[in-house]
Amino acid sequence: MDLLKKRKLEDNGVITDVPVTSRLTIEDARKILESVTPEQMLEILQTAVVRHADVLDQVRVIADRDTTQRKLFIRGLGWETNTEKLKAIFGNYGELEEAVVITDKATGKSKGYGFVTFKHVDGALLALKEPSKKIDGRMAVTQLASAGIQGGPGGGSTNNPVDVSARKIYVANVPYDMQAERILQHFCMYGEIEEGPLGFDKATGKSKGYALFVYKTAEAAKASLVDPVKNIDGHQLNCKLAIDGKKGGKPGGGAQAQTDGHVDQVGPGQYGGPSGITG
Asked: Where is each RRM domain found (predicted)?
C-alpha cells in the first residue's frame, strides 16, 4: 500500500529527497540587477572593488585599457635622480609597467623630469593622492602626463615679466593619437616650459589637432622656431608664435583658423604662475 502510494505521488510529479538549488545563475543575477539604478549600482561596485580582490581585477581589465589614466609626468627632479630611484619611489604605489628619467642625448644628464606608467590605474591614483613628493632632497610634482603642465589659478605669469606673447608657441597638425607627453618631450629640448601643452582633451587625453606651449623665456621660444617644421614620429608639425595666428588665414596661415578660435580663448590672463620643469 505504501509503495503504491509513493509510486502514485512520483507519477504526479512529487519528488522527494532532492537537494534544492541554492546558487544563483548569471541570468538570475541579471534579473535581480534590473531593478537597481545606475547610481545604486555604482555604490555597490565601489564597495565590492575595495573589499574583493577578484572584483578589482575584473574592473582593472577594463580601466587599464586607457593608458592616459596610468601614465604620470614627474617634474622638478634633481639632476642626480635616475630611473632606478624613480622606480623605487613609485613602485611603492603599485606595480610599474615603465619608468624613465629623461636625459640629454648629448650629455647623458637628466633634464629634470620623467615618466612613470603603472600596470594598473589604481597605482596611479594612489601616487596622485600626494602630488608633491620629496625625491633626493627636492620637491617633485606629479600629475597625469595627459594633462600637460598646468599653471596655477588666477592671473598671468606674475613671476615672469617677459610678455607671454613672445613665449607662447602654437603647434599645428598634431595627430589626434599623439600623446601629450610625447610632444612635451620634444619641445622640452629647446628650453624650460612654463605651461603646456594645451590642446588636449582633459577627459580622454586625445589631441584636438593643435598644441600651445608657453616657454619660461623668449629665447627658448625663439630656439623652438629656428626650424618651424618638426618631424615627430613621422608626422610633420608646424610651429609659430601663437600671436601670429591672429594675422593669418587658412593653413599655412593663422592659428585661429586652424584651432577654431582656441587661440583667442587662451590669452595671457589664463596662464598661472610658473610651474614648469625645473631642475
From this structure: 70-147, 167-247
